[in-house]
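Notebook, p. 212. Picked up where the previous page left off. The plan for this session was modest: take the two constructs that came back from the sequencing core last week, fold each one, and keep the raw output in the notebook itself so nobody has to go hunting through shared drives later. Recording the first one now, exactly as returned: residue sequence, then the C-alpha cell string.
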Amino acid sequence: MNSETQLRKAEMTDRDVIWDILQQAIERRRKDGSTQWQQGYPNINTVESDIEKGYGYVMTVNGEIAVYAALILNDEPAYDNIEGAWLTNGEFVVVHRVAVDEKFAGQGMTKKLFDHIEEFTKSHGIQSVKVDTNFDNAAMLKILESKDYIYCGEVYLAGGMRKAFEKIIF
C-alpha cells in the first residue's frame, strides 16, 4: 500500500479526533501495565492548549489523521534539570504526547512521524530533537533506539522520572 504521509499543524477542528486518538493511547498504556498517562494527563484541555499555542501537530495518511504529537521549540523547563547531560545546549525541538490512532497501529507510523519531525527540525535550522518517555514505554524506547536517539539521563516530568533522549540533526 502506497500511502502519503504529511505533517501539519493541528487546527481546533481536529480537536475531537486528536482527543479520541489520545484516549486510545491512554487505554493502550493502561492495558500494557504502564503508569504513563494514567493520572488525568493528557486531557482535552491539554489538546486545546497545544492547538492554541501552536504546539499541536498531526500526521495524516492520505488526508486522514493518523498520529498526534506536540512539538515545542526550545521550551521545556523540566529539561533544565536533567540527571545526566544533554548532547547539545543549542536550539531544540521537544516532542511530547505522541499518540497513534488504533487504525494505524503496527504500521510504523511513529517512525514516519519522527522522520517528519527531523525534517521539520532541519528545515527550521534547529540543531536537535529532545524527547522523553516513561521507563516502561517499551514501544517508544524501541523506536527511539531504532532512530538513533541517544539516552542522556532522566528528567522529572508529569509526576515522575522519565528517560530523556536527544538526536543531533545537523
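Okay, moving on. Second construct, recorded in the same format:
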Amino acid sequence: MKKSFFLYLLILAVLMNIFTYMYYSKKATSEETRFKVSNAKLRDSLNTVTSKLNDANYFSLENNENAQNYFDNANAEKFIAYEKLIPFVKEKLMDANENPAGNPYIGMDKIGEQKFIINKVKILNHRWIIADYSDGDYWGEALIKYFINDDETVSFENFQTLLYQK
C-alpha cells in the first residue's frame, strides 16, 4: 500500500512536470512569435513615418542642396552657414512680431483688436519662407521672400498672403 502510494505520487509529479514544461515552452514560443510580428509592424510603421517625414521636409533649406550651395560661393566669408542662417532668419522674422501694428511682413492690417503675429516659420530654400500667422480669431499663411544683405543683415518682403475664413 505504501509503495503504490509513492508510485502514484511519483507518476503524478512527473506528469505535472511534463505539463508545466509543455505549457511554458509553448508560451515562450508564442510570445516570441508575437514579438516578431509586433516588431515587424513597428518597423513598417517607422519606415512609413520616416518616409512621410522625408516627404514633408522635401521643401526645406536643411534638405535642399541646391539652395545650400547658393550660400557657398566665392564670397562665402560674407555669409553664415545655412545651419546658423535658419535660426538667424527665423529670429529676425519673429522679432517683427513686436511691432504694435502687427508683423509687417504678413501683409495684413489689424481686423479686430488683436494684431497679426507669426506663429510658425519654415524656411523653404535660399529665398522663400512660409509662415503661419494669426490674431487669435483669424488664421492665415504668408509667403515671404528673404534676402541676406552684404552687411550680413536680413531683409524681408511679403510675396503673398492667404487669410482663411472664420
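Notes on construct two before I forget. The radius of gyration is 32 Å.
Flagging for discussion at group meeting.
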